[in-house]
């Protein structure tokens, strides 16, 4: 056991907490636990959906479920597990641990954190309400068009609930990611340079950038699908001139980064667990950290490997083959580093370490099967078969979920003050390993024997029945393992062995807090000179070598508000980028009906554009006067900005009115659809900006733009300038280019 | 319900021919064989890496267990090793990339002529059209040994044509026709299926490619070109009247009898095929009767309405359709 040279505050007990303390909490630890408990609930829901699926598939020609019920179940299983289980679980761990690991007392924006959490149960409720409202979505978790369009879904609204709930969930996810970026950059304790952060923090950091840029692509895609479905447009309906393939491009530009969003935090968890139970630091921290960035960057360049069978053309296929093969390399670096960490160590096979070892082997299997997909001709045989079902379950379940189990057994004592039972843990582990591999290993063979995915039943071809039965048995073993998990968690909460602050003799800052930590986390922190502050504390004669330069107590940190608003702008850039691409593509392919040339008036719109541009200048004046404490003049410039913004909106409104009078609406043709969507969302952003400016105006008048709110005007100004820049791009692409 | 293979044995022309195992690993075509070959190479590479990593982990678990709390040497890394395990994988994936491109060229050469076959995916059946005018459904007769260029289209949503032994899979995308090559080295029947989720009955959108010797294929084509003959008197004639009265011809074609619907499978030579409803059921008298009684009992959610025909009408229709060889 360590003998810390600092006094730790007393362990915090939640016995006095009432339910509304949880509902109204802004404490990152409580919010983290809320994420985890809610995700556990949805895990049981998604798991039951999976068991029903496997029951139906146990024998050929089964009639347990109708095809439509089956299709709803597998769609909901995938959507639930991805958006309501894996992502919130990782967010929950990140929320709980990141501030502790960097020596902070909470995240940068605790109330935003709470909002981000509550959007999760709201989105989950919206999605599952579809069961009662005419049927759950039944078009697969990626809703390929035109199957997801109204001519094929009929009167059912499942796909609408799917799209709307994903928009809601996406907003929460991005808000959470922005908060984490701001927290990690702005709230690190002195001495905790970016080179010294625990790898979990680093991976969450990189992952948050991925999230900020990828989730808006999903939001934009869902918006476009909803415009098609609810407003009778036909962006993705080939029969009306739209493009089914564009849905795939749009979706997978989110969908591929998404799978790394689901993997990176788990990599971070493993990077914490394996070193502690090997009693050695992570092998090759720098390469592991750099490989994380490589994965993030490359992940935006591989999306079309989900489309190798659509007939993209040899050149595109070759490019995406190259990038997809390349992205295996940084992941391999991590695996080798983790194994090298174990090598030469003093391994303690706790339950957490068991799960970490299983992660390593299973993720290698899943990663290698992924490499086979990057070999395009192999993909031409095995895509859309059970081989791919096996692959993604190996990486997401055998990988991420097992990583989460390792994290749970490792950090449960920190979160609750009690250890999970090790003996029950071993039972849990073995049931889960056996169940998982039984369920999914055989699915590789099913795919290689010709069984396609997403089928409610199958013919009695050789070995199909036997392998499916094995898989079903395995699924039920997994189900039992989940019950053991639940039992271990609930029982250990009550009577688990008291853990103390550092039961594992670990080295990162969260272990310098009590178990569980009090609301403010720390009273005092050990000095941070390396990546393992608690090792240094316990081994004053053999500390880790100093990493980089030390910092003084008042080491400068970026402004949290600035980082947050710039991250937000990045997310909005991704959102508008997709809408602009949609506009450019569809207007070029729109052969009949109104065109930018015939229906738009760039000169008239140019006048209103000038008003919007002028508003940026008046806002700059307002900022300058505010900085110089000339409040009255600042307020005056703010009023001018608002007026100019209103002028722009009125101008856009009159333009819309003119178009409507000429019979040009969102459904008229592909140009009109994307024109109204793009300019409409821009107008919405202007409106939100005006509201924000009004709020800032009132705060300035009341003299309350000080202290924590001092940055308020600057944040809103960044946003407003961004909205202007977007309009300049839109104006150029839509009006100027259209008129030529 | 019996499988496709049993259904086939009822057709004398196919008796004794091997039924394929529908696996990419039993290729029967010069377009599928290179893929199987590359797959084997890739699997060996992956197995070596996977087994190597597993052995290293296994060895560590045995050789490096904790003893009496002794802390091991706190090694933080080895740049040379890390560079090696970055460079070697890059070399491996580069090799795989080169092999991929080469295999892609061999298994999916550029299209250089008009298609030999047009296949149109529908919810939930396959329309097959030959340049000579033959139209069929779900079963594709081809001459063995000849490379065939297939033009793949869709009438509604995205489907995917996959006969693993004979060719790569290719999506059938509405508004975006695709071309791919297929061939069968030896005569036989090769199973396949739709491999892109396309709605309620995606599971029963199966395919059968029947490769025949040239003379047999030509004979088949000639037979398929012949229009249907007038039905025999009695039940079959009554069946045709029912077929007309119930407006079956709005969806189904029976060449020569005035029925020209194109929305559903062509029935002119229905009895020359081994299965019904794209593999959902066989084509025995009992199966056809059950189908006509209520298609949704056989293939729930299919687009054929349940006409709630009387038993007499069903029997007549079965008699009529049974003559369509």
Describe the overall structure.
The complex is a heterodimer of chains A (740) and B (325). By secondary structure, chain A is mainly α. Chain A contains 24 helices and no strands. In chain B, strands 3-2-1-5-8 form a 5-stranded mixed sheet, with no helix packed on it. Chain B starts with a helix and ends with a helix. Classes of the chains: A mainly alpha (740), B alpha+beta (325). Chains A and B meet through helix 3, helix 10, helix 11, helix 12 and helix 13 of A and helix 2, helix 3 and strand 9 of B.
Q: Most extensive chain contact?
A: A-B, 90 and 90 residues
Spans where pLDDT lies below 50 across 5 or more residues of chain A: 1-5
Taken in chain order, the helices and strands of chain B follow as HHHEEEEEEEEEEHHEEEEHHH
Structural class of chain B: alpha+beta
- For the terminal residues of chain B, how far apart are their CA atoms? 23 Å
Largest sheet of chain B: 5 strands, mixed
CATH class of the domain at 235-321 in chain B: Mainly Beta
Shape label of chain A: globular
What labels would you give this structure?
heterodimer, A: 740 residues, mainly alpha, 24 helices, globular, disordered N terminus, B: alpha+beta, Helix Hairpins, 5-stranded mixed sheet, 35% helix, elongated
In short:
The complex is a heterodimer of chains A (740) and B (325). With 740 residues, chain A is mainly alpha-helical.
Spell out the blueprint of helices and strands.
The complex is a heterodimer of chains A (740) and B (325).
Chain A: H1 19-23, H2 28-57, H3 67-102, H4 110-129, H5 150-153, H6 158-186, H7 199-231, H8 244-261, H9 264-278, H10 285-298, H11 314-326, H12 328-342, H13 351-374, H14 376-382, H15 386-416, H16 422-448, H17 464-495, H18 533-538, H19 560-589, H20 596-599, H21 602-627, H22 631-661, H23 670-701, H24 712-739
Helix pairs in contact in A: 2-3, 2-4, 2-17, 3-4, 3-6, 3-15, 4-6, 6-7, 6-19, 7-8, 7-9, 7-10, 7-19, 9-12, 9-13, 9-15, 10-12, 12-13, 13-15, 13-16, 15-16, 16-17, 19-23, 19-24, 21-22, 21-24, 22-23, 23-24
Chain B: H1 4-9, H2 33-63, H3 79-107, E1 117-122, E2 125-129, E3 135-137, E4 139-143, E5 148-154, E6 159-162, E7 170-172, E8 178-182, E9 188-194, E10 206-212, H4 214-225, H5 235-245, E11 253-254, E12 259-260, E13 275-276, E14 281-282, H6 285-293, H7 295-298, H8 311-321
Parallel strand pairs in B: 1-5, 4-10
Antiparallel strand pairs in B: 1-2, 2-3, 5-8, 6-7, 6-9, 9-10, 11-12, 13-14
Helix pairs in contact in B: 2-3, 5-8, 6-8
């Amino acid at each position: 056991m360590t003998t810390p040279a600092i006094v730790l505050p007393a362990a915090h007990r939640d016995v006095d907490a009432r339910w509304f303390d949880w509902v109204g909490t802004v404490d990152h630890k409580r919010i983290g636990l809320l994420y985890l408990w809610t995700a556990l609930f949805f895990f049981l829901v998604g798991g039951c959906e999976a068991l029903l699926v496997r029951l139906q598939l146990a024998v050929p020609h089964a009639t347990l479920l109708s095809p439509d019920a089956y299709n709803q179940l597998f769609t909901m299983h995938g959507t639930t597990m991805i958006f309501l289980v894996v992502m919130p679980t990782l967010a929950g761990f990140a929320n709980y641990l990141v501030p502790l690991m960097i020596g902070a007392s909470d995240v940068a924006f605790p109330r935003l954190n709470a909002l981000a959490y509550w959007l999760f149960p709201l989105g989950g409720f919206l999605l599952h309400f579809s069961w009662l409202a005419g049927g759950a979505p039944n078009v697969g978790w990626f809703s390929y068009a035109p199957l997801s369009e109204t001519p094929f879904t009929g009167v059912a609204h499942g796909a609408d609930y799917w799209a709307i709930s994903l928009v809601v969930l996406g907003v929460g996810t991005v808000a959470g990611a922005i908060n984490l970026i701001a927290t990690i950059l702005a709230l690190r304790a002195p001495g905790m340079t970016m080179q010294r952060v625990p790898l979990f923090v680093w991976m969450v950091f990189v992952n948050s950038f991925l999230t900020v840029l990828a989730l808006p692509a999903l939001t934009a895609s869902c918006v476009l699908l909803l415009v098609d479905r609810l407003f009778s447009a036909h962006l993705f309906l080939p029969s009306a001139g739209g493009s089914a393939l564009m849905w795939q491009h749009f979706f997978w530009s989110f969908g591929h980064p998404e799978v790394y969003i689901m993997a990176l935090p788990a990599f971070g968890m493993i990077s914490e667990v394996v070193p502690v139970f090997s009693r050695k630091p992570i092998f090759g921290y720098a390469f592991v950290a750099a490989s994380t960035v490589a994965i993030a960057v490359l992940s935006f360049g591989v999306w079309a490997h989900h489309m190798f069978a659509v007939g993209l053309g040899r050149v595109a296929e070759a490019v995406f083959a190259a990038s997809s093969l390349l992205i295996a390399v940084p992941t391999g670096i991590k695996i080798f580093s983790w194994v090298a960490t174990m090598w030469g160590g003093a391994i303690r096979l706790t339950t957490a370490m068991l799960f970490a070892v299983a992660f390593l082997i299973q993720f290698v299997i899943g990663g290698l099967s992924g490499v086979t997909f990057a070999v395009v001709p192999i993909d031409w045989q095995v895509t859309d078969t059970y081989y791919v079902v096996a692959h993604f379950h190996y990486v997401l379940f055998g990988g991420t979920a097992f990583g989460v189990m390792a994290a749970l057994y490792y950090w449960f004592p920190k979160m609750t003050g009690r250890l999970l039972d090790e003996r029950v843990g071993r039972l849990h582990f073995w049931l889960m390993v056996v169940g998982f591999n039984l369920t999914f290993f055989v699915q590789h063979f099913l795919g290689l024997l010709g069984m396609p995915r997403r089928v409610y039943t199958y013919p009695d071809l050789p070995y199909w029945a036997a392998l499916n039965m094995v898989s079903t048995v395995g699924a039920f073993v997994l189900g039992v393992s989940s019950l053991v998990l639940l039992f271990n968690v609930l029982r250990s909460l009550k009577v688990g062995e008291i853990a103390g602050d550092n039961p594992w003799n670990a080295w990162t800052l969260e272990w310098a807090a009590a178990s569980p930590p009090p609301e403010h986390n720390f009273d005092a922190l050990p000095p941070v000179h390396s990546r393992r502050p608690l090792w240094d504390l316990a081994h004053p004669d053999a500390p880790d070598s100093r990493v980089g330069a030390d910092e003084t107590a008042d080491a400068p940190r970026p402004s949290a508000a600035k980082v947050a608003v710039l991250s937000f702008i990045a997310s909005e850039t991704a959102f508008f980028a997709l809408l602009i691409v949609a506009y450019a593509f569809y207007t070029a392919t729109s052969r009949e009906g109104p065109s930018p040339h015939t229906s738009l008036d760039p000169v008239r719109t140019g006048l209103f554009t000038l008003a919007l541009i002028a508003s940026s200048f008046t806002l700059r004046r307002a900022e300058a006067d505010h900085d110089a404490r000339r409040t009255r003049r600042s307020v005056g410039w703010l009023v001018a900005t608002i007026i100019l913004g209103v002028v722009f909106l009125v101008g856009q409104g009159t333009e819309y009115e003119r178009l409507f009078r000429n019979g040009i609406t969102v459904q008229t043709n592909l140009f009109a659809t994307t024109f109204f969507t793009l300019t409409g969302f821009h107008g919405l952003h202007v409106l939100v900006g005006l509201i924000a400016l009004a709020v800032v105006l009132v705060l300035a008048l009341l003299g309350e733009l000080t202290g924590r709110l001092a940055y308020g005007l600057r944040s809103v100004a960044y946003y407003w300038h961004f909205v202007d820049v977007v309009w300049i791009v839109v104006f150029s692409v839509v009006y100027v280019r259209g008129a030529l | 319900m019996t499988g496709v293979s049993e259904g086939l044995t009822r057709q004398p022309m196919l008796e004794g021919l091997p039924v394929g195992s529908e696996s990419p690993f039993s290729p029967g075509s010069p377009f599928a064989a290179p893929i199987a070959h590359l797959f084997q190479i890739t699997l060996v590479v992956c197995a070596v890496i996977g087994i190597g990593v597993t052995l290293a982990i296994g060895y560590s678990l045995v050789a490096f267990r904790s003893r009496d709390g002794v802390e091991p040497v706190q090694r933080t890394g080895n740049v040379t090793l890390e560079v090696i395990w970055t460079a070697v994988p890059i070399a491996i994936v580069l090799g795989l990339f080169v092999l991929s491109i080469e295999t892609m060229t061999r298994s999916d050469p550029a299209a250089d002529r008009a298609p030999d076959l047009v296949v149109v995916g529908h919810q939930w059946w396959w329309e097959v059209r030959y340049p000579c005018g033959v139209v069929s459904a779900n079963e594709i007769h081809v001459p063995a040994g000849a490379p065939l260029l297939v033009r793949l289209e869709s009438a509604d949503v995205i489907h995917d044509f996959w006969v693993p032994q004979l060719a790569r899979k290719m999506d059938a995308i509405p508004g975006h026709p695709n071309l791919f090559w297929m061939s069968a080295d030896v005569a036989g029947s090769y199973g396949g299926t739709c491999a892109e989720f396309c709605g309620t009955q995606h599971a029963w959108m199966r395919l059968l490619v029947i490769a025949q010797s040239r003379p047999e294929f030509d004979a088949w084509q000639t037979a398929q070109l012949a229009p249907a003959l007038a039905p025999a008197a009695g039940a079959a004639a009554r069946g045709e009247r029912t077929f007309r009265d119930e407006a079956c011809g709005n969806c189904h074609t029976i060449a020569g009898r005035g029925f020209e619907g194109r929305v559903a499978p062509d029935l002119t030579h229905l009895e020359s095929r081994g299965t019904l409803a794209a593999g959902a059921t066989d084509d025995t008298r009992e199966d056809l009767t059950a189908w006509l009684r209520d298609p949704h009992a056989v293939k729930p959610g299919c687009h054929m309405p349940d006409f709630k025909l009387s038993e007499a009408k069903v029997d007549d229709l079965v008699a009529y359709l049974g003559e369509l060889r």
